[in-house]
Amino acid sequence: MASSPVPHEPPIYRRIADRLRQAILAGEFRDGDRLPGENALMSEYGIARATARQALAVLINEGVAVPKRGSGVYVRHFRPIRRHGSRRLSREQWGTGKAIWDSDVTGRPFTVDDIVIAREAAAEDVGRVLGCGEVWVRRRRYSVDGRPVQLAASHFPADLVEGTPITVPDTGPGGVYARLGDLGHAPVHFTEEVRARMPSPDEAAKLRLPAGTPVIEVCRSAFAAGGTAVELNKMIIDAASYVLQYDFDA
Amino acid sequence: MASSPVPHEPPIYRRIADRLRQAILAGEFRDGDRLPGENALMSEYGIARATARQALAVLINEGVAVPKRGSGVYVRHFRPIRRHGSRRLSREQWGTGKAIWDSDVTGRPFTVDDIVIAREAAAEDVGRVLGCGEVWVRRRRYSVDGRPVQLAASHFPADLVEGTPITVPDTGPGGVYARLGDLGHAPVHFTEEVRARMPSPDEAAKLRLPAGTPVIEVCRSAFAAGGTAVELNKMIIDAASYVLQYDFDA
User: Fold this and answer.
1) Could you give the ipTM of this predicted complex?
2) Whole-number pLDDT of residue A5
3) Extents of the domains making up chain B
4) Boundaries of each HTH gntR-type domain copy (chains A, B) (predicted)?
């Protein structure tokens, strides 16, 4: 155990990766650009091929670069979307707070497609959370700047929302939460469960994920006063496109 | 767009995966057991090889199973650790709330090793958040049931904590937050930023991750009253071992 002050120098491959990442963030390389290859890095830094490969692997692992077979490594840069779990407590109130990851806080327009609305039998886990056998589900895909970034499936207890605008495409002003409010079941509390895993082939196709990009799965339960679960939204998120932010007091 | 009630039946490979997962969760297959192979699934369900492969791929993607070359697919079952971002609002107050993912809420003992404590130059992102050029950092690895599950590196502004127990292995009762309190900088607010990505080779080795398992990166900033950032903890988490839970009010 080293408990005395020592300087900490990251290994060379990591410093090269840091420099390339900074160049990407600074706009010197843009989305779709080819990065310097192994040969170029070897001669520029006087390093072995394995080291050059390691440096590029760091960026590939982070999802900021994508290898194309026989052609090199290309920038996949997308300013990540910052998703606030709890706006009420969010960073605006913490003036000096600076974020680890650069991202857009302000509104980038989403487009929505692949909308499917249906009444169906609840999957086992959904039925357990919502306490019902049938659900109305609203499925859709979100894209930003033409890039699919999220698949979402909101589930509602079928008998609770049957015959309401929650079962049709246009839910009206304020959306589904306003409609739950009309029914006397406005959400007052949310729980989000977050996991990460590799995507299924179907998810990878719908989100157009390059090989090796994981997804974040967010399951958001909404509870009305008294603790009744009124919605379960399962979100599958391109991990390279998002930063999730949660704020809370001690 | 289908907006009329239609029954929703998942594809056959997914139903087989669901059945195998339930058998794992029910303890019929245990950690390290070999799952039925493609041939066994083909004859049991009367399906094509590609379908059997898809079913097993679902479990591999979820991190519940691991392929071993030429030998089959094996259970990698680990009851995930539920990590509460904000205890104060947590599910205990939401009596009827049921979780999507089965996991241990109660205390499973962590063991800690690979402890390194050092004063060092702040990495660019760390320095920006903490507003300093040098930090004291406390690095360690957490394991549960003998399995490494998390690498953590807590950073503190060097001049703030120099000469305090935060710079030595035993920080005393209440740990680093109590010591920050002694200094008049008790954390009152936390921000967590969450991302997922593939691990670096070094992270994969330290967490003993099988190929294809992503990590979740949690960057937790602690703020004292007035908004001063007093700690930045970078956690690298085995995605197959954790569910992160966040609770907040509407």
Assistant:
1) 0.80
2) 45
3) 12-75, 81-245
4) 10-78
Q: What residues of chain A, 4 to 43, have a C-beta less than 8 Å from chain B?
A: 4-8, 10, 18
Cβ <8 Å between B250 and A190: yes
B154 with B137: CB under 8 angstroms?
yes
What are the structure tokens assigned to B162, written together? 């120099």
Which CATH architecture is the domain A12-75 placed in? Answer: Orthogonal Bundle (1.10)
Q: Supply the pLDDT for residue A136.
A: 98
Same fold, B12-75 and B81-245: no
Distance (Å) from the C-alpha of residue B71 to the closest C-alpha of chain A? Answer: 22
Please report where in the chains the tokens 């989100």 appear, as a residue.
Answer: A207
Per CATH, the homologous superfamily of domain B81-245 is Chorismate lyase-like (3.40.1410.10)
- pLDDT tens digits along A145-191: 888 999 999 999 999 999 999 999 999 888 899 999 999 999 998 99
Q: Is A175 on the interface with B (CB under 8 A)?
A: no
Contacts of A93 (CB under 8 A, 6+ apart): none
- Element containing residue A137 per DSSP (H, E): strand A134-144
CB B120 within 8 A of CB B188: no
A189 touches chain B (CB under 8 A): yes
CA distance A64 to chain B (A): 10
Residue A95, pLDDT score: 46
Structure tokens at A66: 């994508």
User: How many A-B residue pairs are in contact by the CB < 8 A criterion?
Assistant: 254
